[in-house]
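INFO  loader      accepted 1 record
INFO  loader      residues=262
INFO  predictor   begin
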Amino acid sequence: MLRIDGLDFRYKSKNILKDVGMELNRGEVLSVVGPNGTGKTTLLKCIAGIMKPGKGTILIDGEDISQMKIQKIAKSVAYVPQSLPSRFPITVFDAVLMGRRPHIAWKPRQKDLELVAAILKNMHLHDIALQDFDQLSGGQKQKVLLARAVAQDTDYLLLDEPTSNLDLKHQMEAMVMIYNMVKKKKVAAILAMHDLNLSSRFSDRMVMLKAGRVFCSGEPRQVMTVENIKSVYGVEAEIIPTNGHPYILPTMPVNEQKITEN
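INFO  predictor   done
INFO  writer      dumping tokens
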């Protein structure tokens, strides 16, 4: 289990996260949603050990992350950032192989190379395995970084906007792959997401942040309500049940009127 209690993070004079708490079990997908600037990325970076919270605890399988060495954290948690590196002058194969770094003493073993090859094939990236990462499209780069996280072979995946650079088809492919991997391997994933409909469809539980605090949490049908959408996003919406999942249809920003033609 990953457990967070009373997490605070301050950047200069601004509180980014305030008394955040949540739990995540293996075999679960949890989406963190909320408006821009509400602390989603900061939360993932704190869990990954990239940022140090001012207060609170993060426990990974009962162990305080603040007491763990960097290599041990890397064996437990894989983090995929939202922003793509501007320069990464290596091949796709080597970029994914970097995910094995926490498990490699001096040089890659044969099983590391075979694992990377299998991941590239499963994610339909084998055809570009020898291409330079810098020459790829934004969507291809996003998939390669996701493949690198898979190669890291951790119990917890932290994915910051994993579908942000993907077209509709590849968004669905990525979300299905993440969901199936979580269920099959009994790992856990936390996704920072803007797309509420993808979140509600592929998440076991959701956490909605507002101004750095947990506004509500629970199953998608409990979180994705008309009242919550209005309170957190300032948008009027309809909630349409679709295949057992809530589908959010925004209708109008609060206090705005649609211009109609005469």
